[in-house]
Amino acid sequence: MATGKPYPPAGSGIRVRPWQDYSSVRPRFRLFCKSLEIFTRSHGVWKLQGSYDSDVSIPNYPDLTVHNNWMSRCLTGDIYKKLKDKKTQSGYTLDGCIQTGVDNPGHPFIMTVGAVAGDEESYKTFADMFDPIISGRHGGYGKDAKHKTDLTFENLRGGDNLDPNYVLSSRVRTGRSIRGLALPPWCNRAERRDVEKILKEALATFDGEFSGKYYPLKGMTEQEQQQLIDDHFLFDKPVSPLLTCAGMARDWPDARGIWHNDDKTFLVWINEEDHTRVISMEKGGNMRRVFQRFCTGLKKVEDVIKSKGYEFMWNPHLGYILTCPSNLGTGLRAGVHVKLPNVSKHPDFDHFLEQLRLQKRGTGGVDTAATGGTFDISNADRLGMSEVELVQKVVDGVECSLTWRRPWKQVCLFVCLLKAMEAGKDVYTVWPKAYPDLTKHNNWMAKCLTPQMYHSLVNKKTDSGYTLDECIQTGVDNP
């Protein structure tokens, strides 16, 4: 095997970073990483692949050797050299886009984005960097792909009665940006005040179910502030370095505010991370009603904006344009607060959610702990799928329906697992009995084939009829 030649080959473009401690990774993956580590050590100094090394030959190129974000993986020296002197019409630069990612290396096992847009043009001017970031963050979304939008709430199936024994509250939110004005990382005070004025005047026209009041953060009374805090409506000055390094806390609290309807079920944030965040929420598990209110209210906002001569940033490729590439497309996050004190302790809980394209946060949102086993479960995707499709994923993932007449077998199995595990049963007693006994096996198939993976693949066939069971039979018969 050894040839005496260095690896990776010269000119291959493959970059590596130093060895890391994988002690906190799940055991099976740790074995895999360690085996790769041994392999690379036996062939010289090369280690596991990771982010790009710093290219000190290019003036001003940042040192990204310890970084773990999409920007550090995608911004090569050549791309930096090509884009470093470009500016958008408003004057935003590549260094402005990446500064938050440079200043915040990230967590070894959590991939942040590491870049923001300063205006709508940023995604085009710096496309050589943003396109691979978007592709990586959004599951291979291509630079020629077309986004789809569907805000027809009638297309949502079910969701009007999620199990009240689990679901405490439901919400749907999105972001929007007003065309012609710079985004929060780059806007000046005048632009930020223009955003507030446009939205405040639009919301003042609402009546009926959407009749409400605007509360500017600047000048808010202590009583109003405390009430909004008690209602969990108030957003505060950003303290996360990811946001402050991106310039989103400048001039705080100037031109920031919150509007909500009288029933406190429809909210609009102004000039937080985006020009505006539109939120529909209520207690309980009627996600269908929440989504209907969301679609209706959002359309009202857009219609009034258009009547004033403005429009939201949007294009066929990226959908709705927002500050962070992670929110492009729909910008939509549909979530429920759900009680799962037992299932959440299972080591494969995160994997179950991942298979359903769902993600979890703590009770108070990102970077918070779960209180009493209550999690915020929401869709993981934003771009390339419609609003209806994303809300449907959340509904399907938590809906307590076990009928196999529906096409969502994986979802039904997931619900079955949740119920069984909440009842104290071991997850492996719930999986199909066809799953092989691999407890004494020492081969890569046994290390990699999980019960949930087996179930998702067992009924599939290649065009010639080959099955998963035939793939693994030799490994089953030979421990």
Verbal overview:
The strands form two sheets. Strands 2-3-4-5-1-8-10-9 form an eight-stranded antiparallel sheet. Strands 6-7 form a two-stranded antiparallel ribbon. The two termini are about 25 Å apart. With about 475 residues, the protein is of the alpha+beta class. Residues about 1-55, about 400-410 and about 425-435 have low confidence and may be disordered. A hairpin with a 3-residue loop joins strand 6 (about 315) and strand 7. The radius of gyration is 25 Å and the shape is globular. The protein contains 16 helices and ten strands. It has three domains: about 1-45, no CATH class; about 70-135, ATP:guanido phosphotransferase, N-terminal domain (Transferase Creatine Kinase, Chain A, domain 1, Orthogonal Bundle); about 155-410, Glutamine synthetase/guanido kinase, catalytic domain (Creatine Kinase, Chain A, domain 2, 2-Layer Sandwich), CATH 3.30.590. Belongs to the ATP:guanido phosphotransferase family. Pfam families: ATP-gua_Ptrans, ATP-gua_PtransN. Keywords: ATP-binding, Kinase, Nucleotide-binding, Transferase. This is creatine kinase. Its EC number is 2.7.3.2.
